[in-house]
Amino acid sequence: MPKIRTSRTKRPPEGFEEIEDSLAEFTKKMRDAENETHEGKRKAEALWPIMRLNHARSRYVYELFYKRKAISRKLYDWLLKEKYADAGLIAFWKKNGYEKLCCVSCVQTKGRNYEGSTCKCRVPRAQLKSNESVQCQHCGCQGCSSSD
Ligand SMILES: [Zn+2]
Ligand SMILES: [Zn+2]
Question: What is the Å distance from ligand 1's center to 132 Cα?
Answer without folding.
Answer: 15
